[in-house]
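As noted in the main text, all predictions were made from sequence alone. Below is one such record, for PilZ domain-containing protein.
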Amino acid sequence: MTYKPLSELDTRTRHRWRGMAFARIQSGAYVGRCVSVVEFSETGCRVRDHTMACEEGDMFHLVLEDVGPMVADVRWTYGAFIGASFRQPLTALVMEHLHTRLDQPLQMRMAQMMNR
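Prediction:
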């Protein structure tokens, strides 16, 4: 599948999955915080959180749904959005697992994340 850029400034060549996923911050100033992931790929994700005040260069460990923890570096921030890159790309098997997991009902996944 060919990636459809969000704007002319978007120069990515790999497909990013857009949807609603949940993640939990496992380290740093926001440890234990649950956040929404609105886009992810093998190499990173876009997080939406209105209260995280991180900066480019910050690092945290992230559990995306039931995958991780992964080391994520903050690449950019814009309003309530944070762009993070994973230090180790996700494998094809992990990506397949995430896609299968995200086919499950949103309410069920949210309840599982909150109970961890």
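The chain has two helices and six strands. The CA atoms of residues 4 and 10 lie 9 Å apart. These features were considered when defining construct boundaries for the mutagenesis experiments described in Section 2.9.
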